[in-house]
Amino acid sequence: MTNERLLKRTIVKEVIDSKFLQEPRTLRIYLPPGYNEILSYPVVYCQDGEEFFNFGRIATWANQLILEEGVEPFIIVGVEVNTKVRTEEYAPFGNRFDAYLSCFAEEIIPFVEQKYPVRKEPAERVLAGDSLGGSVSVHLALRYPHLFTRIISLSGAYYEKTQNMIQEERDLSWLNIYMIVGLQEDNYATDTGVYNFVELNRSTKALLEERGATVSYLEKEGRHLWGFWQKELPAALMYFLG
What are the tens digits of pLDDT across the range 17-43? Predict the structure, then answer.
């Protein structure tokens, strides 16, 4: 029987007006059990916010980690995206990419930090994303290393342009990334072509490690689907928050 405590979740919706994207952007904010505004909390920021909550069940996992595993309570901020323009925002060759990075770092982060008691040190802030959400999280860290140093990458879409940008970096010793990819992702069709995600992740891992990044890397049986990532989320969260 499912434990009722795990299903009782507090999720607040916020909308910010982004001057960079020139449109409103919705945030879903999970507040942990026993939430108290006079305390301070680590925070996980998720790309594809709606999917992390609906398909990744991240709020239920968070409750379980906090209530049953003794993990320190944390806040989750899911940043929603319109799937029609997702590639334009998340891919470095997209026409909304720069605006999205600016919106995330210069509008969303200050909004959340002003309104919620999240900790402001980079070590208390985790970026999480699947596929292009994983790679855009890396791009955010590369552009704003004073804000982001910890990344959860679920089957990151590390296309050539992203790998080239990583290659240009000299020292990534400040970066700590948890990467996982499914072994059945070797021939995956996206809106920009068919890719071998296993190879993309292996070669990106090597690029990151050559530049001194701390990489926790896993390959497991799995496809490029939430059915795979959802089961892997608790271990990924525990890596940084446990």
Answer: 999 999 999 999 999 999 999 999 999
C-alpha span between 131 and 156 (Å, rounded): 4
Closest CA to 183 of 202, 166, 165: 202
Q: How many domains, the chain?
A: 1
DSSP H helices in 36-174: 49-54, 58-68, 86-90, 97-103, 109-115, 132-143, 160-167
Q: How many helices (H) and strands (E) does the chain have?
A: 10, 10
Instruction: Give per-residue pLDDT as tens, 200-227.
Output: 999 999 999 999 999 999 999 999 999 9
Distance CA 126, CA 147 (A): 10
The answer to whether 169 and 142 are in contact (CB under 8 A) is yes
Range of the domain at 181: 4-241
Cβ 124 vs Cβ 176: under 8 Å: no
Task: Look up the CATH number of the domain holding residue 50.
Answer: 3.40.50.1820
**How are beta strands 188-190 and 176-182 bridged, if at all?**
unpaired
Burial class (CB in 10 A: 0-12, 13-18, 19+), 114: exposed
User: Model pTM greater than 0.85?
Assistant: yes
Closest CA to 108 of 188, 28, 166: 28
